[in-house]
Amino acid sequence: MRLWTERLLLRSFRQDDAEAFAELHADAEVMRHLGGTLSHKDAYRDLQEIMDIEAETGLIRFAVEKRASAGLVGYCGLKPAGKFIDLSYVIARDHWRQGYALEAAKRVRAFGLIDLSITNMEAGGAADNVASIRILEKLSFKHREELLFNGRPSVRFFD
Question: What pTM does this model have?
Answer without folding.
Answer: 0.93
